[in-house]
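FYI - complex with aspartic acid, inputs then prediction.
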Amino acid sequence: MKIHWKILLFMAAGALLGGVFQAFLDAPAWIGVTVEDTETGVRIKSLDSRSPAAKADVAGSAKLKPGEQIAAIIRNRGKPGQEEAIPVRTAGDLDDVLSRSQVGDLIWIEVAGKDRPVSVNIAMQPGCQRDRWLEPFRFVADIFLALLKMLIVPVVLTSIITGVSGVGSGRDFGRLGGKTFGYYVSTSFLAIFTGLILVNVIRPGTGAELGLTPSDKFEQVAEQGIFDVFRRMVPENVFSAFSANGQMLQVIFFALLFGFFITRAPEPHRTRMREFFQSAFEVMMKMAVFILSLIPYGVLALLVKVVGETGFGMFRALAVYVVTVALGLIVHSCVVLPLLLRFVGGISPWQWFKAMGPALMTAFSTSSSSMTLPVSMEAVEKRGKVSNKTTSFVLPLGATINMDGTALYECVGVIFLAQFYATVGDFQLTVGNQVFVVVMALMASIGAAGIPSAGLVMMLTILTGLGLPVEGAALLLAVDRPLDMMRTMVNVWSDSCGAAIIARTEGEGQVAGIPAPG
Ligand code: ASP
């Protein structure tokens, strides 16, 4: 069976099983707070250390502490017309709110003497019937996520070094290299901005019911301005950069430089290093393909866990997110790139699209730029009539480095989750944070290998860099495959447009069978 059908099937099975758990297994709502009635009001007697309410907030102190007084509970905060504030005068009032709530709901607790209410996700009573049944699925989901994270650093490092050091096999980067990189970076930025605009207009994450625990501790890393983002890109110590998934920018920065300087090293070192990293990359690819083949099981476990804990509400939010990404991909591939083809390259977008048919279809069905590479090279050279020199320079590097679709997707995905955390938690989606996301989305798309779901794995690094929990990305895995098929198609389309435009600017005559103007 084709892997995407298998993923879809396992996803449906997971959702179904989660729904059954949700419907038939008992799970009392729980916040882990014991209270007592005092003369002045309801006082917190003790807090269970497993409770979301006992975790630290932004300032690093526990959200709720024993001895504090609960004044009111706010439900449906941020939903105009539905918001209700329930005064808590006796312990019974609190029980009453809990009995009317569902696991996964979010409530805000107003504490006497605090100027801001604290958000607490309602959990299920630890050890309850449903909790016990969900345990094995949580276990599988956690292991699966760890495996994905394990891949990040070695894959990014080896794929970038191999890509950059392999360019032209020792030939200088020169003019063609400059143009190619210029094209990669500018189209990726255009894609990211398209995504940024759409996600800020549609706001799929604001008030979304994702059932994720609001983050307990946001490190407001990107509070600083744009210069800090770039300053943080340069590692002081590469090994400490390798050891933290949130420092991916630094790893990529180092890998780009390292790959470039391999081409500058004398023989035999140049060849030796290139071959070494090429081999390491091949091994990592085999490993990644194996781990990614486990996606159906990971998705099953994740869906049982999420639906079993919080129900089906999240699917509505995810649908809006999918539409936002798809819309962005359509705008970029059907408007932005064709305009470049037409006005920079002087090439008819429609004719070029027809010539690229086989490559685009392969990209769509494999979700892998790397697997599509032989087909796209053939299409660009034979059907598109671009010279072998330009094709073999622009496409192989583009397959790992130039990923417009992935870049757009990273931006929308991360901001979607950030919007969610900004409504439910104390996270602030500042301009500085958005700038950080833009830069990181570009880097993540450069760092992503041309294999299925690589973009999702890279998203974990942006989330970590922002100080957001990575559980959000696990949720996006549920709908990743269709988006992956679409974004891979856009990645390949952009590579091919790049080859055509660069061929034209290099004075090649017969691109797509259309003679050069003049
Ligand atoms: N699957 C994509 C590609 O190969 C990468 C990604 O996951 O975004 O181009």
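The chain has 19 helices and eight strands. Residues 367-369, 403, 406, 448, 450-455, 484, 487-488, 491 surround aspartic acid (CB under 6 Å).
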